[in-house]
């Protein structure tokens, strides 16, 4: 892999602390990543509109993935809400690699890597 283009993080107890707060310096970090050509995406099972309310000053700089992946708001752009039918799903996704292959310990949940 030559370049990381996107970093995505779950919200609760991953990006947010136990009090539901973002880490200090988060906005500056997002802008620094953007300067390097790396997008940041906040992902959650929460409705997309609640994520938009959480990041009012960063809406032009981060992607938001809400509704358990059913809604996407790209930085400064449009909103996509869609459902993928069962038969179409295997054609556009492949299983993610095991956690160990990503240098992580532990199980790692389900997921999907979009094929491009």
Summarize the structure.
The chain has 116 residues and is of the alpha/beta class.
Blueprint of the fold:
Blueprint (H helix, E strand, L loop, with lengths): L5 E5 H5 L10 H10 L3 E5 L4 H7 L7 E5 L4 E3 L5 E3 L7 H4 E2 L18 E2 L2
Parallel strand pairs: 1-2, 2-3
Antiparallel strand pairs: 3-4, 4-5, 6-7
Features:
single chain, 116 residues, alpha/beta, Rossmann fold, 2 domains, 5-stranded mixed beta sheet, two-stranded antiparallel sheet, 4 helices
CATH class annotation of the largest domain: Alpha Beta
Question: Strand share of the residues?
Answer: 15-25%
Q: Could you tell me the CATH topology label of the largest domain.
A: Rossmann fold
Overall structural domain count: 2
Kindly report the name of the CATH homologous superfamily of the largest domain: HAD superfamily/HAD-like
CATH architecture of the largest domain: 3-Layer(aba) Sandwich
Order of helices and strands: EHHEHEEEHEE
What is the CA-based Rg, rounded?
15 Å
Shape: globular
Major sheet attributes: 5 strands, mixed
Q: Give the helix/strand class.
A: alpha/beta
| Average pLDDT taken over every residue | 76
């Amino acid at each position: 892999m030559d370049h990381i283009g996107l970093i995505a993080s779950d919200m609760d107890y991953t990006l947010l602390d136990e009090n539901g707060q973002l880490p200090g310096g988060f906005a500056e970090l997002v802008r620094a990543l953007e300067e390097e050509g790396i997008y940041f995406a906040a992902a959650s099972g929460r409705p997309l509109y609640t994520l938009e309310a959480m990041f009012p000053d960063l809406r032009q700089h981060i992607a938001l993935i809400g509704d358990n992946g059913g809604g996407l708001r790209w930085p400064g752009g449009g909103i996509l809400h869609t459902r993928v039918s069962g038969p179409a799903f295997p054609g556009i996704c492949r299983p993610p690699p095991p956690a160990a292959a990503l240098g992580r310990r532990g199980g790692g949940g389900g997921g999907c890597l979009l094929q491009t």
